[in-house]
Amino acid sequence: MKIIMLGAPGAGKGTQAKMIAEKYSIPHVSTGDIFRANIKGGTELGMEAKKYMDQGLLVPDELTVKILLDRVAQDDCKNGYVLDGFPRTIPQAEVLDKALSELGEKVDFAINVDVPDENIVKRMGGRRACVKCGATYHIEHVPPKKEGICDVCGEKLILRDDDKPETVLNRLKVYHDQTQPLIDFYTKKGVLKTVDGTVSTSDVFASIVAILG
Ligand code: AMP
User: Fold this and answer.
1) Is any ligand 1 atom within 6 A of the Cβ of residue 5?
2) Which partner from 117, 147, 158, 165 sits 20 to 30 angstroms from 107, CA to CA?
3) pLDDT tens profile 9-31
4) What pLDDT does residue 88 have?
5) Which residues contact residue 125 at a Cβ distance below 8 angstroms, ignoring those fewer than 6 apart?
6) Annotated catalytic residue: which of 160, 164, 173, 188?
7) How far apart are CA 64 and CA 34, in angstroms?
């Protein structure tokens, strides 16, 4: 099963993607996580990506497409995957489509987690991420067991630079300009399913499971 998660930054698609990955035993592939791992590792790719990420801009398609195609070509992706944060532009979606059709495959579901902009701005300020493993939390909706500490690895939680208010506004603009057209793209392919992302994490997940079966 090949699933794409769509939705504004902060709509909760990462949280849902992880839950889907666990339930259906498929890898969770997040381009944002791959970039952050590279930044942390001080790689050339990481340094290049950081320039864009810190401003809330998209990393250029050439870089992003290459890392994504390399990732989904790995063995653990044979039976499918859930993509979180990719594609974010029409050219990215077209490259993915072409790569899949060369293998006789296609995207099975594009899940659009729908949350209005007003809610997004409020939500992002409450987001926290682990400095070490990248796990994400929300101080109200998905709090860690111990305040400021990661449940998974015990490291410190921070507000990511790209979740700071000024960057969030930029990311929302970028989302509307460059990513929202994908809703139309996947509607035309007959695979788009929209779920209400304003309800609780478990209710959003229940709607997704009802779609995926
Ligand atoms: P995320 O964790 O998915 O919100 O991604 C964080 C940041 O990484 C984004 O704001 C972009 O700068 C960059 N990024 C992640 N995925 C992509 C993508 N598919 N295309 C371009 N930039 C991306």
Assistant:
1) no
2) 117
3) 989 999 999 999 999 999 999 99
4) 97
5) 159, 163, 165, 168
6) 160
7) 10
| 113: three-class secondary structure by DSSP | strand
Q: What is the mean pLDDT of the chain?
A: 94
Q: Where are the beta strands (DSSP E) in the chain?
A: 2-6, 28-30, 81-84, 109-114, 127-130, 136-138, 157-158, 192-196
Does 171 participate in catalysis according to the annotation? yes
Q: Is residue 86 within 8 Å of 92, Cβ to Cβ?
A: yes
Does residue 175 have its Cβ closer than 6 Å to ligand 1?
no
Q: Find the distance separating the first CA and the last CA of the chain, reported in whole Å.
A: 11
Ligand 1 atom at minimal distance to the Cα of residue 53: 12
What span, in angstroms and rounded, lies between the C-alpha atoms of 147 and 103?
46
Q: Which domains does the chain have, with CATH numbers?
A: 2-115+175-212 (3.40.50.300)
How far is Cα of residue 69 from the mean position of the Cα atoms in its chain? Answer: 16
Please identify which residue in the block is written with the tokens 């990506």: 49
C-beta 144 within 6 A of ligand 1: no
Mean pLDDT by 10 residues, the chain (213 residues): 95 95 98 94 95 92 94 95 97 96 95 93 89 90 94 95 86 95 97 97 97 96
